[in-house]
Specification:
The complex is a heterodimer of chains A (about 200) and B (about 525). Chain A is an alpha+beta fold. Helices cover about 40% and strands about 15% of the residues of chain A. Chain A contains seven helices and four strands. The longest helix of chain A is centred in the first third of the chain and has 17 residues, at about 5-20. The chains are: A alpha+beta (about 200), B mainly alpha (about 525). Chain A: One of its GO terms (molecular function) is transferase activity.
Chain lengths: ~200, ~525
């Protein structure tokens, strides 16, 4: 079997390449080993321009399997994101190159670029999160503002979505946990009554 | 199949079981007035000729075809094999598609140029492990992408470990060229992985070749060849298992592979639902909504149309006025229960949300009708297998008591075999009929089915008579049964052919439910 040694050599080279490449303008911010471990990395990408994620900073959690690069890295979002191909709960990503279409000659840099591209152009027909995907298809403007609200809240994007912020504040004032309120409101299409029913049945 | 494989074209009727009962044509005009003279083994719609092959023989067939394509197109054996798998081992198609497709992903001419280019640098970097290697340590696939030998080995090993054989693609991120067998053999060094790879690719070769079939029994290494592949019965001469040549599951004519798969799935999926609906719900006699009664008395008020009726007899409740809560079709005990429940006025009625309830109910009833008959025959088949054993014992005993030799009692064995054969056929006519569309062809089919059914019931009865049995009557019944079995299968074949034409004309394959298949999917 492929020695982890080989995977580590390659990872070190990949880290160095991302570090020296002038990818910043392309949206790849950084790729670093977590606690010095080469099998668990952290990648940071920017939300693509002219998307609801614009200005946001997204952290990716990257695990390297021992068979790497013959098996794909396991990548998920550590930052919460509202996107049809990303689970709004776990951050799991639905992307072909992370599963069947992985090729050994691909690199973590190409993976990060692909994920950034995925943020900019969602594929609603191959969803990871059914709630988000159906909203994306049926109510595009609500989807856009929810994604923007999540970007502001979790990814430090500069834009503001005042009406959503207000609804959250209103429910937090009733004594609910803020992050539960955000999730539940988003899943209920920002219908306060529905969200209340879910958070406090009966 | 490959040209030059003439050895395997000669098919003999190995199907001992099928050939066992060949009605001899000496008897004419039987009691039912049909001339059986022209019924012989060749005309049996269930007859199927195939020959069994060893692992080595199959390998030889594969090799011959690969060599043919390889020589014709001047390719490596690996690429030739991949092409044949993709073209389902039709050598003509393979050669033709390849020539038409010369600019596509298999094109070796372009690759050959790449292969022969003069390499200036003696060292190069493998873009998978990022190490610099001498040119000798690099290996190039037919697509021209080059990686180091140890990366190829690790990659191939991990792919084989995932169960892949055919269809391992190049490591390059934008390349989907299938890696050929010869390349794998050269660069995969791990012994067990290599063996696994060979097994995988061999299996793919057999499965992609419509003329070949393998015994589905675990660890039975027996293969079959037929020049006219069809979904007919194969009996393995090594392990005696019996299965369909095309799909490898239980033999299922007159149903085609797709129909029977659909039916099995339906029977599995619907087992609980349908029995629940049939036993717990009824249709409102007025508006035909499906109603589940989940408690209370038998005085129901439909939520949809407000019609009041009796759950037991489904009559208007007004007619029950004088004998409140007592229905005359009710049995005594239940009637008593109903009276006891009289105090409980509240009745709960849940109309199940369905668009066209009567249609749904009809469909369900239809399904249950066929299912019940399917199961009945299945049950009879099991009982008659026991009967067959009894016959066998009986014959043995008679021979021991010197009441004639084995040959004298052969007719009894034949009768038993015929009974089982027809019973099985009948069982599988039910899914076939279930998927038939209404119309004259269905009526004819069901008529033939009913005829066979009644003959078989008589035959079964006669055989069970034991020693008192009338040999002449038995033989007449056997001829009748055989004749009707063939008529039924011929008709089924006719229907499938018509359905095939209908599909071709309509160019809408999904619509015709009774499909047909002569080649492996």
């Amino acid at each position: 079997m492929s020695a982890p040694n080989m995977a580590f050599n390659r990872i070190q080279r990949e880290l160095a390449e991302v570090a020296k490449a002038s990818d910043a303008e392309k949206g790849i911010v950084s790729l670093e080993a977590k606690d010095g471990r080469l099998d668990h990395l952290t990648g940071v990408i920017k939300g693509p321009p002219s998307s609801p994620y614009e200005g946001g900073t997204y952290v990716l959690d990257i695990k390297i399997p021992p068979e790497y690069p013959f098996k794909p890295p396991e990548v998920k979002f550590a930052t919460k994101v509202w996107h049809p191909n990303v689970s709004s709960v776990t951050g799991a990503i639905c992307l072909d190159i992370l599963r069947t279409n992985w090729a050994a000659a691909m690199t973590l840099r190409t993976v990060m670029i692909s994920i950034q591209a995925l943020l900019g152009s969602p594929v609603a027909d191959d969803p990871q999160d059914a709630v988000v995907a159906s909203q994306f298809k049926t109510n595009r403007s609500l989807f856009d503002s929810t994604a923007k609200y999540w970007a502001t809240t979790y990814a430090d994007a500069p834009s503001e979505v005042p009406e959503m912020k207000e609804k959250v504040a209103q429910m937090v004032a009733m004594g609910f946990n803020e992050s539960d309120v955000r999730d539940t409101l988003s899943w209920s299409g920002w219908d306060v009554a529905k969200a209340l029913e879910k958070l406090a049945p009966e | 199949m490959a040209e030059g494989d003439d050895d395997y074209y000669d098919c003999y009727d190995d199907d001992a079981d099928e050939a066992d009962f060949a009605t001899t044509s000496e008897e004419l005009n039987l009691d039912f007035g049909v001339n059986l003279k022209n019924i012989d083994a060749d005309a049996d719609p269930e007859a199927f000729s195939y020959t069994s092959l060893t692992h080595e023989e199959v390998k030889q067939i594969i090799r011959t075809a690969v060599e043919f394509v390889r020589n014709k197109l001047n390719l490596s054996t690996g690429v030739a094999k991949n092409l044949l798998i993709e073209n389902r081992w039709n050598t003509e198609d393979t050669v033709q598609t390849f020539r038409q497709d010369e600019a596509s992903k298999h094109v070796p001419s372009a690759f050959a140029r790449l292969r022969n280019r003069t390499v200036s640098e003696s060292m190069s970097e493998c873009s998978v492990c990022y190490t610099t290697k001498t040119r000798d340590n690099m290996a190039e696939n037919t697509c021209g992408h080059s990686f180091c030998a140890s990366c190829w080995n690790s990659y191939l090993e991990s792919q084989v470990a995932e169960g892949k054989g055919f269809g391992i693609t190049c490591m390059d991120s934008k390349c989907d060229v299938n890696i050929g067998e010869d390349f794998v053999m050269e660069y995969l060094t791990d012994g067990p992985s290599l063996q696994k790879y060979e097994r995988n690719i061999f299996r793919t070769c057999v499965e992609s070749n419509p003329s070949l079939s393998h015994c589905p029994t675990n660890n039975c290494d027996n293969y079959f060849f037929s020049s006219q592949p069809d979904s007919k019965r194969v009996v393995c001469d090594k392990c005696q298992s019996s299965f369909c040549f095309v799909c490898g599951s239980e033999y299922h004519l007159p149903c085609c592979c797709r129909t029977i798969r659909q039916w099995w799935k339906k029977v599995m999926d619907d087992a609980d639902t349908s029995s629940y609906i049939s036993s717990h719900t009824k249709d409102c006699p007025n508006c035909e909504s499906s109603i589940e009664k989940n408690g209370g008395c038998n005085h129901l008020i439909c939520r949809q149309c407000k019609y009041e009726f009796c759950w037991v007899c489904l009559e208007d409740w007004k007619s029950h006025g004088a004998e409140y809560y007592v229905c005359n079709r009710f049995n005594a005990k239940k009637a008593a229960d109903a009276v006891a429940a009289a105090a409980e006025v509240a009745t709960v009625v849940i109309p199940l949300a369905v668009n066209k309830p009567n249609v749904r109910r009809l469909a369900l009833n239809k399904y249950l009708f066929y299912l019940e008959r399917w199961k009945n025959h299945e049950q009879s088949l099991r009982l008659e297998e026991n009967l067959m054993n009894q016959i066998h014992d009986r014959v043995q005993k008679k021979v021991q008591n010197r009441e004639g030799s084995l040959i004298d009692w052969q007719y009894l064995m034949d009768a038993g075999k015929l009974l089982l054969k027809c019973r099985r056929a009948l069982q599988y006519t039910y899914p076939f009929a279930y998927y038939l569309e209404d119309g004259p062809s269905r009526m004819l089919f069901e008529h033939l089915q009913a005829e066979l059914e009644s003959t078989i019931e008589n035959l079964s009865f006669t055989i069970e008579q034991g020693d008192k049995l009338d040999v002449a009557a038995l033989q007449a019944q056997m001829r009748s049964a055989e004749f009707r079995r063939r008529a039924l299968f011929r008709d089924a074949k006719e229907i499938k052919t018509t359905a095939a034409q209908a599909i071709l004309q309509a160019a809408e394959p999904q619509k015709t439910i009774c499909s047909f298949q002569t080649v492996r999917p």
